[in-house]
Amino acid sequence: MSGAAGEPGGVHRPDDLDADETPSVLSGLSADESIDPMAVVGHELHRKSTRRRVVEGSVSLLAVALIFVFVLPAVTDSHYSEIWHEISNLSAAWVVGLTVIWVLGMLAYTGVLTNSLPGLTHPQALTVNFAGSAVSNVVPFGGAAGVGATYAIDLSWGFSVPSVTLSILVSGVWNVFAKLFMPVVALALLVSTGRATGRLLVPTLVGLVALIGAAVVLALVMSGEVLAAKVGHVGQKVVDPVCRWLRRSSAPDLTRIVLDFRHSSIGLLRRHWLRLTVWVVLYNFGQFLLLLACVRSVGQGADSLGWIEVFAAFSFARLLETIPLTPSGVGFVETGAVAALIGFGGSDAASAAAVFLFRGFTYLAEIPVGAGAWVVWATRRSWRRPIGTGDRSFAT
After folding, report:
1. Which of 113, 151, 324, 328 is the most exposed place for a label (fewest CB within 10 A)?
2. Helices marked H in the chain — which ranges?
3. For the chain, how many structural domains are there in total?
4. Could you tell me if residue 112 is inside a domain?
5. Are the C-beta atoms of 337 and 358 separated by less than 8 Å?
């Protein structure tokens, strides 16, 4: 797919987007609208009826209110004034240190994006990541809107729809592996060091089996066409009864989907899987260090909460981020992480303060910074390219 000839930011022809490869977040949009993230996000939000959007927003807001008004105070056995007292006592040095760790973690994630979308620069990766996250962090059930913003911004920089789709899929798969892997490691560390009871052995083994199963499936899909088709066929046998139970008119063709994923991703993964893995590990390690630093900043030393306990709380919190009821799992993440820290021996108010600090960086700060990223996208006209001209060979 080649864009219209001319200078960056030129007009794109409608046939720059192939109807057969257009994702649902772009369906019904013209080529010009597809490179306008505000138009794409607005289109995605208005695909739902006003009634549904009001209901979803109300349910999400109610869930957040119930958690922060009733559940969290009960879990922490502390008043918010006590939590704020812990946070307000932070020195300027701690604030600067926490900010540096957060920034380094976000810079690490640009490595994931630049390796899943060859040709994307690190400044562009930082911009699109913050812009998409800001949408997801504000809108209830806003994951699709955040994905739509990612599509529009990347397309405006000259990348093609298949390349952006592949980037979203591959980075998503690597993130899922990380979220499955960390709780398994955390539980294994807790059990092996005697910091947890033997009752955690069963969930550890279950998680390990799930992780190994997912890795084996990916390896089979990538190893050959015949095995990939068999994986799709087995998956189809599972999906078909579920779709009938849900009274869906038709089930997705998993065999075709698996084969398409293999065809489009095999070149990228053969060249970039190691770098993708390294950058995902570095990003999550940076996020863990941020939570550990937040715990230490409020005066909880290694004698009360060791790094293993903090890593376990972080790992479980990462899983809770996937709850779609509230933006980025807000409320559920805080409750789960605070409960874990307190359960491992942390003090009530200090544990809550540490988690609130952590989420202040990883959730709240991304909203205004994300707004700034939208401004960067709008003003950096030199980054604009006709659709399809920004793709780079997987050999890079």
Report:
1. 324
2. 31-34, 37-45, 50-66, 72-76, 80-88, 92-116, 122-138, 143-156, 161-192, 201-223, 225-245, 254-297, 307-320, 332-343, 348-359, 366-379
3. 1
4. yes
5. yes
CA distance 333 to 128: 24
Domain assignment present for residue 179? The answer is yes
pTM: 0.85
DSSP string, 116-177: HSTT--HHHHHHHHHHHHHHHHHSTTTHHHHHHHHHHHHHHBT--HHHHHHHHHHHHHHHHH
pLDDT tens digits for range 71-89: 999 998 889 999 999 999 9
Q: Note down the domain range covering 210.
A: 80-123+168-373
Q: Are 149 and 135 in contact (CB under 8 A)?
A: yes
Contact call for residues 143 and 160 (beta carbons, < 8 A)? no
Q: Is residue 326, in this structure, part of any structural domain at all?
A: yes
pLDDT at residue 9, rounded to an integer: 36
> Which segments in the chain show pLDDT lower than 70?
1-21, 196-205, 207-208, 246-247, 249, 263-264, 393-396
* pLDDT score recorded for residue 202: 64
In-domain check, residue 197: yes
Exposure of 185 by Cβ count < 10 A (0-12 exposed, 13-18 middle, 19+ buried)? Answer: middle
